[in-house]
Design a protein that fits this description.
237 residues; alpha/beta; Conserved hypothetical protein from pyrococcus furiosus pfu- 392566-001, ParB domain; 3 domains; 5-stranded mixed beta sheet; 11 helices; globular
């Protein structure tokens, strides 16, 4: 349930965790002028303080428009639990990799959760968590500042030059590991959902599924040949 609160009453300690994209905020500002804030800002109640976790673009736009109040929804009183909840919804809320990394570093370095605990809470692998922690560990202060300003040229150049992460992988290798992890995850999901024949009944689904599966099957031999070579080659290292 959302309540109306004064923008000045919100604690912005996590604002630096979220990226600023001026072009998006300009469009959002135009939208708010016409329709107002439709989706509540979200935060956690910490020592009687409303700590904002989600909705910083809407907050900044509200300040520019000098709105007296904004809609706000509490995610509870436990900051760690609220952050975990936000990360669980990150696919829907589109948290970027860097935003995920910042929150995960907060959970580990400030809230005291270890990699295994974070992975279990998010239903993710330990490598998923470690990759994001490694990204934050190597990022210098100037690079972080450029990212927060929305200037991505320098950070992208830096990321291309990073030779190795703390777990011994280069950026290219980390990306491939992430792709393999997603491949394994979605293979399991497709196999599971494909067995639920009673839920797969619409003609539109059958038509599109037939085309997509045909495309996948046409590449399956080449894909598994490459995968087998990758498996064999890494087994020899």
């Amino acid at each position: 349930m959302a309540n109306e609160v004064e923008p000045g009453s919100l604690d912005l300690r996590y604002e630096s965790f979220r990226l600023e994209v001026p072009a998006l905020e300009e469009r959002l500002l135009s939208s708010l002028l016409q329709r107002g804030i439709e989706e509540p800002l979200e935060g956690v109640e910490s020592n009687e303080t409303k700590v904002l976790l989600n909705g910083f673009k809407r907050y900044r736009c509200a300040r520019k428009l000098r709105l007296a109040t904004v809609p706000y929804r509490s995610l509870g009183r436990d900051e760690a639990a609220a952050i975990l909840g936000l990360l669980k919804l990150s696919n829907n809320r589109t948290l970027s990799l860097l935003e995920q990394a910042a929150f995960i570093a907060e959970l580990k370095n400030v809230r005291g959760l270890n990699v295994a605990e974070i992975a279990a809470e998010l239903a993710r692998s330990k490598s998923w968590v470690t990759l994001r922690l490694g990204l934050m560990a190597q990022m210098s202060v100037p690079v972080r500042q450029e990212i927060l300003k929305g200037n991505l040229a320098l950070p992208l150049q830096w990321m291309r030059q990073v030779p190795q992460s703390p777990d011994g992988c280069s950026e290219f290798e980390r990306v491939l590991l992430g792709d393999l992890e997603l491949t394994q995850k979605y293979m399991q999901r497709v196999m599971g959902k494909s067995q639920e024949q009673s839920k797969l009944t619409r003609r539109a689904f059958h038509a599109q599924c037939h085309l997509l599966t045909a495309g996948i099957l046409s590449r399956s031999r080449a894909f598994f040949d490459v995968l087998r070579q990758l498996h064999d080659r890494n087994g020899q290292e």
